[in-house]
Design a protein that fits this description.
Helix content is 51%, strand content 0%. It is mainly alpha-helical.
Length: 99
Protein backbone atom coordinates (compact mmCIF):
# COMPACT_ATOMS: atom_id res chain seq x y z
CA UNK A 1 0.00 0.00 0.00
CA UNK A 2 2.94 2.31 -0.35
CA UNK A 3 3.25 3.47 3.26
CA UNK A 4 -0.44 4.29 3.79
CA UNK A 5 -1.92 3.01 7.03
CA UNK A 6 -4.80 0.60 6.68
CA UNK A 7 -8.16 1.81 7.95
CA UNK A 8 -8.61 0.95 11.60
CA UNK A 9 -5.08 -0.33 12.18
CA UNK A 10 -3.03 1.26 14.96
CA UNK A 11 0.02 3.04 13.60
CA UNK A 12 3.29 2.86 15.54
CA UNK A 13 2.95 6.62 16.19
CA UNK A 14 -0.54 6.19 17.64
CA UNK A 15 0.66 3.38 19.91
CA UNK A 16 3.63 5.44 21.09
CA UNK A 17 1.30 8.34 21.87
CA UNK A 18 -1.05 6.06 23.80
CA UNK A 19 1.82 4.84 25.93
CA UNK A 20 2.36 8.42 27.05
CA UNK A 21 -0.99 8.32 28.87
CA UNK A 22 -0.53 7.48 32.58
CA UNK A 23 -2.48 4.18 32.68
CA UNK A 24 -1.62 2.76 29.27
CA UNK A 25 1.11 0.19 28.95
CA UNK A 26 1.58 -3.26 27.45
CA UNK A 27 -0.77 -4.70 30.10
CA UNK A 28 -3.72 -2.43 29.19
CA UNK A 29 -6.60 -4.70 28.19
CA UNK A 30 -9.06 -3.10 25.77
CA UNK A 31 -11.59 -5.91 26.34
CA UNK A 32 -11.59 -5.28 30.08
CA UNK A 33 -12.07 -1.54 29.46
CA UNK A 34 -15.03 -2.19 27.15
CA UNK A 35 -16.64 -4.45 29.76
CA UNK A 36 -16.01 -1.84 32.45
CA UNK A 37 -17.65 0.90 30.39
CA UNK A 38 -20.66 -1.33 29.72
CA UNK A 39 -21.02 -2.20 33.41
CA UNK A 40 -20.73 1.46 34.47
CA UNK A 41 -23.74 2.19 32.26
CA UNK A 42 -25.68 -0.97 33.20
CA UNK A 43 -25.40 -2.27 29.64
CA UNK A 44 -24.71 -5.73 28.40
CA UNK A 45 -21.95 -5.94 25.82
CA UNK A 46 -24.66 -6.56 23.19
CA UNK A 47 -26.53 -3.44 24.30
CA UNK A 48 -23.30 -1.48 24.22
CA UNK A 49 -22.70 -2.64 20.66
CA UNK A 50 -26.19 -1.51 19.65
CA UNK A 51 -25.75 1.92 21.29
CA UNK A 52 -22.44 2.35 19.47
CA UNK A 53 -23.63 1.09 16.08
CA UNK A 54 -21.34 -1.95 16.15
CA UNK A 55 -22.22 -5.53 15.35
CA UNK A 56 -22.02 -7.52 18.63
CA UNK A 57 -19.91 -10.12 16.85
CA UNK A 58 -17.24 -7.45 16.29
CA UNK A 59 -16.85 -7.11 20.05
CA UNK A 60 -16.90 -10.89 20.55
CA UNK A 61 -14.23 -11.49 17.90
CA UNK A 62 -12.02 -8.72 19.32
CA UNK A 63 -12.29 -10.26 22.78
CA UNK A 64 -11.42 -13.73 21.46
CA UNK A 65 -8.36 -12.20 19.80
CA UNK A 66 -7.11 -10.89 23.12
CA UNK A 67 -8.46 -7.37 22.86
CA UNK A 68 -7.47 -6.88 19.23
CA UNK A 69 -9.94 -4.18 18.16
CA UNK A 70 -9.56 -1.79 15.26
CA UNK A 71 -9.22 1.90 15.89
CA UNK A 72 -12.53 2.37 14.07
CA UNK A 73 -14.29 0.07 16.55
CA UNK A 74 -12.80 1.90 19.53
CA UNK A 75 -13.73 5.24 17.95
CA UNK A 76 -17.34 4.06 17.52
CA UNK A 77 -17.46 2.97 21.15
CA UNK A 78 -16.16 6.37 22.22
CA UNK A 79 -18.64 8.22 20.03
CA UNK A 80 -21.56 6.08 21.23
CA UNK A 81 -20.68 6.67 24.88
CA UNK A 82 -19.65 10.30 24.55
CA UNK A 83 -15.99 9.65 25.38
CA UNK A 84 -12.78 10.91 23.87
CA UNK A 85 -10.06 8.41 22.94
CA UNK A 86 -8.06 9.85 25.83
CA UNK A 87 -10.88 9.09 28.27
CA UNK A 88 -11.23 5.58 26.87
CA UNK A 89 -7.54 4.88 27.41
CA UNK A 90 -7.40 6.58 30.82
CA UNK A 91 -9.58 4.52 33.15
CA UNK A 92 -10.33 5.52 36.73
CA UNK A 93 -7.31 4.98 39.00
CA UNK A 94 -9.01 2.28 41.05
CA UNK A 95 -9.86 0.15 38.01
CA UNK A 96 -7.88 -2.97 37.29
CA UNK A 97 -7.13 -2.91 33.58
CA UNK A 98 -4.88 -5.92 33.24
CA UNK A 99 -5.77 -9.20 31.62
Amino acid sequence: MGGRAQKGVFSPYFISELRRLPNVNDDFDVSVRIQQLAQERNLTVNSLAKVCGINPSTLAVGRKRGGDYSLDTIRRICNGLGLTLGEFFTPPNNAEMRA
